[in-house]
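Please describe what follows:
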Amino acid sequence: MFKLLLPLIMILTIPGCGYNTLQSADENITASWAEVLNQYQRRADLVPNLVNVVKGYAAHEREVLTGVTEARARVGAIQATPDLVNDENAFKKFIAAQGQMTSAISRLLGVAENYPQLKADGLFRDLQAQLEGTENRITVARNRYIDAVKDYNITVRSFPSNLTAMLFGHKTKPGFTVENEQAIAVPPKVDFSAPVPASSQ
C-alpha cells in the first residue's frame, strides 16, 4: 500500500506540483464559461421579440423568420451546462448552433433594410440596441474563456504539473477552433443609420 502512495506523496510534496494552480485554473474556466452561456442566453431571449416586431412589418419574409426561430430552437435543444466544456463533441455542436444563430439573426436584421417603417419602429430600435450590446458582451466573455482555457491547458501540459494533472484526471479543455471562431467572431450587423436606397422606398 505504501508503495502505491509513495508516488502520490512525492508529487504533492514537490514545490510547484501544480495542484493548486490546476484547481484555480479550472474554476476560472467554469466562471468564464458560465458568463459565455449567460450572454448567449440573453441573446436567445431577445430573439422572439425581435421576430415578432419584424413580422409586424414583413410577415411575408417567412423563410427568414422561420430560419431564426429554428436556429433558436436548435440552440435551446442543447443542454448548455458548465460541464459542456468537458465534452468536446457537445461543445462543438453548441458552438456550431450558436454560429447558425448568428447567421440567422444577421439575415433577419438585413430584412429591415427594405422596410423604412420597421427601421423607425421604437421597439425595434430598442431591441437592436440591446442585441448590439449583447453581441459585444458575448465577444468579451468568449475572449475571457479563451484566455482561461489557454492558461489551464498550458498547466495541464507542462512539467511537473502534467504529472499532477494525469494523477487527478485533469484533461485539456476545448477552445474555439479557427473554423468555429470565424463562424461566430463577426456579430450581426445592427447599424441601421445608413440611408435606405431609393428603390426600397
